[in-house]
Amino acid sequence: MKFLDAARAAAPWMVDLRRQLHRRPELGNQEFETATAVEAALASMGLKPRRLLETAVVCDIEGALPGPTVALRADLDALPLQEETGLPYASEIPGQMHACGHDFHVAGLLGAAKLLAARRDVLPGTVRLLFQPDEEGDGGARRLMEAGCLEGVACVFGAHVRPELPAGQVGLKYGPAYAASNPFVIRIKGRAAHGAEPQLGADALLAGAQIVTALQSIVARRVAPADSAVLTVGTFHAGTACNILAGEAVLEGMLRTFGEEGRRTLVDAVTDLATSIARGMGCEAEVRFTWGYPGIVNHDGPTALVERAAQALLGPEAVIRHTAPLMTTEDFGYFLQAVPGCFYHVGVGCDAPLHSPRFTPDETALPVLAALHAQVAWTALNEGNAG
Ligand code: NI
Fold first, then answer.
1. Residue 100 alpha carbon to ligand 1 centre in Å
2. Is there a binding annotation on residue 136?
3. Does residue 194 have a known ligand-binding role?
4. Is the pTM of this model over 0.70?
5. pLDDT tens-digit profile of 326-370?
6. Which of 134, 179, 240, 333 has a C-alpha 20 to 30 A away from that of 260?
């Protein structure tokens, strides 16, 4: 399949689509215009998109030949950020911007849909397109999955643009690729007393200080040196006056981990350490974790498949293997907890990082993203499965 040539021919259409989306960025769960634009583009290819959730669009490209179903995903939402690019197609909505490249993802997946829909007569199986809301907020992927978007799906693929990679280069990470997010609050209850009579109270502030220090031993001493995790205590509130022993202290922090096992181990370690130290100092600690995005652990089979597809499409030099996982997170990980798959990167060579008001991805990478999605789906269907 000559997906790259076809994608390059469709590039002006994709660029135009991406700029339309860029002008009208919508925040999580409010992607109504975006979802309507996606439906219109899919309908123009003779496809039949359906809504799942209020702003999610799901669409099957059914091949003429029998075979499995594989899914490709893009995210629809923008960020609450004032754009500063000065581009002619900059955001028309004050305080909202596609600064994470999700407009790029949508246009790229629509480009892939165009390439695959044009080859339905030789397609051995079904490609399911997932346009999901609210990646940046409350896990649109999880809700889309609970609504049944992965029923019958053998494997799932998705991509994110990366500004630090040259335009058109593909980045891959086997195994742990994005961290799980675990924000936490530790509430320490002591007993207030006069600052000059500490023996009559229990100092929650002092216990909190010990806990902050001790928590830093978790990554240093509970995680193997070659593995990764990060723990940050970001706020510490305690006390009301200089001569009163603090009766309460509240710490807020975040823990980023890799894989479900690592996540449980470290969440338990934080809880044990904080409660034990508080108890040892005559206080009580209550530790509350929010179970955030699970992170991404790519499956070996599908990741090797993406590597083969990318090398076939772009040549071996265009594909790099990342050596370290990212500490940021991504709700695509929910899909990978349910079915095998891989989340890969496409370079858009740009000085400004993701989530910057000056993020300006290189649009020459758009046909690469579209062709890579199409090549990955085509390869997965032709190999019968990607597990
Ligand atoms: Ni993003």
1. 5
2. yes
3. no
4. yes
5. 999 999 999 999 999 999 999 999 999 999 999 999 999 999 999
6. 134
